[in-house]
Design goal:
The chain is of the alpha/beta class. It is built from 11 helices and 15 strands. Helix 5 links the parallel strand 8 and strand 9. The longest helix is centred in the C-terminal third of the chain and has 16 residues.
């Protein structure tokens, strides 16, 4: 048996999340069984649970969360037994994104999932930090490197203090780009600037376009990583260099943004709509290798804001919904210190 958090209907976290005892899963032939040490919580996880934008229940009961980290406890018949005991970080445990996906996420003591969704976790990271890699890190790779090398180019990261934004800032610096980042909180500016040679601007400033253009000698930026396409599109177009790319991973303020066609066409611009889990297998392996290499070189590390116990999952969801800084995790390992 194992402990797990589940919800049987969408709604407020405190009303729908509950703790249960359930049978420990058994891995299929191409799966691994992972003892979960930490479960990462992303905005997409709380949106699913809340029923955001009309999301309906795809299963009778759902164990939430796509990301996590732990130790492989057993393997299926087609998986090398040498993987048992391996420290791993997990991505897209629930699947979905246009399909029903899986009912079982990482908010449980054990999870069985396809072997290639359990990636070796570098010793440089704790399980809590490893649980923060999946969604942010794979999205960051696609946003920063999905259209080729960025060395010597200028990358603007909108929302540089968020989980994806912070990963993009570190990745861009590690890949040799010049980085400009926007932040919404003054306290976040020094944190983001600490990633290296990063220029940080207040995203609420009325002179943001002028400051970005001055910082690029009037040329504009080559690539923009966008956290809210609908809210920032006019600013992005004004900051974009000819033939630049806007790589957008969300448009929460308006899921149906209106695009000014000729403003974009006159720049020869590209808008890339991102889903980090839609990477083809060869690109995904390249992304995983890049992420782990940057971690081992000390150039990339998630920033944890708070850690909760599994039983306190509703409070953890509330923190994510509040927009509090740093990533939020559940710790299922008593040996890991709880941060609050």
């Amino acid at each position: 048996m194992m402990r797990a958090a589940v919800y049987r209907r969408t709604g407020p976290a405190a009303e729908v999340l509950e703790m249960v005892q359930m049978t420990r899963p058994v891995p299929d032939a191409h799966e691994v069984l992972v003892q979960v040490r930490a479960s990462g919580i992303n905005p997409a996880d709380v949106k699913r649970r809340a029923g955001w934008n009309g999301m309906a229940m795809a299963h009778e009961a759902v164990i939430p969360h796509c990301d996590g980290a732990g130790v492989i406890a057993a393997v299926g018949a087609e998986i090398l037994p040498e993987r048992v005991g391996e420290r791993v970080w997990l991505w897209n445990a629930q699947g979905g994104y246009g399909t029903a996906g899986r009912s079982d996420g990482t908010a449980a003591e054990y999870i069985a999932l396809p072997s290639d969704q359990a990636v070796t976790l570098p010793e440089e990271l704790s399980f809590q930090e490893g649980a923060c890699l999946g969604v942010p890190a794979l999205t960051a790779w696609l946003a920063v490197a999905g259209d080729g090398p960025v060395a010597g180019k200028t990358v603007l990261v909108q929302g540089g203090a968020g989980a994806v934004g912070w990963a993009c800032v570190q990745m861009s610096v590690g890949m040799g780009a010049r980085v400009i980042a926007t932040v919404g909180r003054r306290a976040a500016a020094s944190v983001v600037a600490g990633a290296g040679d990063v220029v940080v601007f207040d995203r609420h400033g009325t002179d943001l376009v002028e400051r970005v253009m001055a910082a690029t000698d009037g040329r504009g930026v080559d690539r923009i990583v966008e956290v809210d396409l609908a809210a920032n599109l006019d600013t992005d177009i004004a900051c974009l260099a000819p033939h630049g790319v806007i790589a957008s991973y969300s448009s929460s303020s308006d899921p149906n943004p209106v695009l000014p066609y000729y403003d974009l066409a006159n720049l020869g611009a590209t808008i890339r709509f991102l889903q980090g889990f839609r990477l083809p297998a060869d690109q995904r392996r390249k992304a995983e290798d890049t992420i782990n290499t940057l971690i081992r070189e000390g150039q990339m590390r998630p920033r944890i804001g708070a850690s909760y116990s599994l039983e306190d999952i509703a409070s953890a969801h509330a923190r994510v919904e509040s927009g509090a800084p740093g990533q939020t995790v559940l710790s299922l390992s008593r040996s890991e210190r709880t941060l609050r």
